[in-house]
Design goal:
Helices cover 53% and strands 11% of the residues. With 447 residues, the protein is of the alpha+beta class. The strands form 4 sheets. It has an 8-stranded mixed β-sheet. A two-stranded antiparallel ribbon has the order 7-10. Strands 8-9 form a two-stranded antiparallel sheet. Strand 4 and strand 5 form a beta hairpin. Helix 8 crosses helix 11, helix 15 crosses helix 16 and helix 16 runs antiparallel to helix 17. The radius of gyration is 29 Å and the shape is elongated. The C terminus is likely disordered. The chain binds adenosine-5'-triphosphate and magnesium ion.
Length: 447
């Protein structure tokens, strides 16, 4: 929307959002704010998802009540965030985020002393680094200003509890219809202010099957290396959202094309382009992960990283083993090197890296027939993930099916399989003939 233009308001009878689709806790919160005279909107991704007929992950509320006023209204409210305070309202099994409308600081063009003074006061609430990345942005604003600081038009729609209308400050409804991801404002400015928006664009394109607006896509490809400026902890969060929601294959494809994979995972990227068969192998793994996620099977970050890095790690381990390095040592060193490279950009918690190594290390034990000490292997904390990984690689290596079948049978009947396993392990020992000791003659020095 051009500044100063009226937003488009779609009355209740002309859109498909019904209050039945909204969580009762969110409705209660909206009504209470509204009754106390505040503006109360559902904002962000939940409005987009409701319009698409999807179940939103969470319901975010925007209001003109200040954090202090929100806290007074809800006894179950906690204020979080040091610079920009947000209210978290905790209900049984549901956490709602209520935020006061915010704005982005834009310096005025005028040069009058008053305006310059006002600008310098406001600028203290909006700090960017030399590259234009926003570091602090904490000014309260109007509902319209709040919409304009959001990332994409489809994420800037609001649902007004006062009259159940939808408010479209940008071209959100049209873009939703055309399945288009369009930045609000110049994509170069918006991706530079916050490079995470590039990952978010990819995520929505992959998960919703939308297209990134061509101009924005071009800029994204050009700026992809700027993703490394984002804090490593935030990148870890984003990577999980990107890859663990059932669309890692299409997301990886867009990231690979745009240069985001090269920027985030240089080792993986080198391996990926090193041999024409590798992309298909990696996409098979990602497709497997996506099928698990979509069927509701939880996928741990360690298992996901094993699927992503397993092929490159196994290849390196094999090469080093052929050079004479013991397999275990080669695996430890390869994991440390590759995860060390990743850690330069993304904070992958140490326990996730350790678990990933353990999943790969257990494969040698799982691929023995008959397996040794099955019950004790099953007691290892990484055992289930290791079997899941074996199932995953067996998708492309058919000769591993026999091991998968054995362990699946074990998982169905752990007790009987453990007994059987012990019996097969014991058998050779029982058959071993004990050598009879030669009777010792009396020692010469015996008295
Ligand atoms: P999801 O369904 O994955 O939760 P979402 O769009 O709701 O998607 P959230 O991370 O929950 O994503 O963010 C809520 C809203 O906050 C977004 O819809 C968007 O309007 C705004 N937002 C989030 N991150 C950014 C960002 N980096 N820049 C601008 N606006 C953002
Ligand atoms: Mg959300």
């Amino acid at each position: 929307m051009v500044k100063g233009m009226a937003p488009r308001i779609i009355p209740r009878k002309e859109h498909r959002i019904s209050r039945k689709q909204v969580s009762p806790n969110a409705l209660r919160t909206l009504y209470r704010l509204h009754r106390r005279g505040f503006i109360a909107f559902l904002v962000g991704g939940c409005v987009r998802d409701l319009l698409l007929g999807r179940t939103p992950k969470d319901f975010d509320i925007g209001t003109n009540a200040t954090p202090g006023q929100i806290k007074k209204l809800f006894h179950n409210c906690r204020l979080i965030g040091r610079r920009f305070r947000l209210a978290h309202i905790q209900f049984e099994g549901e956490l709602l985020e209520v935020s006061t409308f915010r704005r982005t600081f834009v310096p005025s063009d005028a040069e009058s002393p008053e305006e310059t003074d006002r600008d310098s006061r406001l600028a203290r609430h909006h700090i960017t680094n030399e590259e234009g990345m926003v570091l602090v942005d904490n000014l309260f604003g109007t509902p319209e200003e709040d919409a304009m600081r959001r990332d994409f038009t489809i994420n800037a729609l609001a649902y007004n509890i006062a009259d159940f209308s939808i408010i479209d400050y940008t071209s959100g409804l049209m873009d939703l219809k055309e399945r288009l991801i369009r930045t609000i404002g110049d994509p170069r400015v918006r991706f530079t202010e916050d490079p995470v928006r590039m990952l978010r664009a990819v995520r929505f394109a992959a998960s919703h099957g939308f297209m990134i607006e061509p101009v924005a896509w071009e800029v994204l490809c050009e700026l992809s290396s700027a993703i490394c400026r984002v804090s490593p902890a935030r990148l870890y969060e984003e990577i999980q959202k990107l890859f663990l929601t059932g669309f890692s294959g299409p997301a990886f494809q867009l990231m690979e094309k745009s240069g985001l994979i090269l920027a985030l995972f240089p080792d993986l990227s080198r391996w990926f382009y090193g041999d024409s068969r590798r992309p298909a192998l990696l996409y098979e793994n990602l497709d497997y992960i996506d099928r698990l996620c979509r069927s509701g099977t939880p996928v741990s970050p360690a298992f996901f990283f094993a699927a992503l890095f397993g092929p490159v790690m196994e290849g390196t381990v094999l090469d080093r083993h052929r050079e004479g390095i013991p397999r275990r040592q080669a695996l430890n060193e390869t994991c440390a090197a590759i995860m060390g490279e990743v850690a330069k950009t993304i904070t992958v918690p140490g326990r996730v890296g350790g678990r990933l190594r353990a999943i790969l290390a257990l494969q040698t034990f799982l691929c023995r027939m008959p397996p040794r000490r099955a019950a004790s292997l099953a007691g290892r904390p990484e055992f289930l993930e290791a079997v899941a990984y074996l199932r995953l690689i067996a998708e492309t290596k058919k000769d591993l099916h026999v091991f998968v079948e054995w362990w699946d049978a074990f998982l169905r009947e752990p007790d009987s399989m453990a007994l059987l396993n012990e019996a097969t392990e014991e058998a050779p020992r029982k058959r071993r003939r004990r050598r009879r000791r030669k009777p010792r003659g009396p020692r010469e020095d015996a008295t």
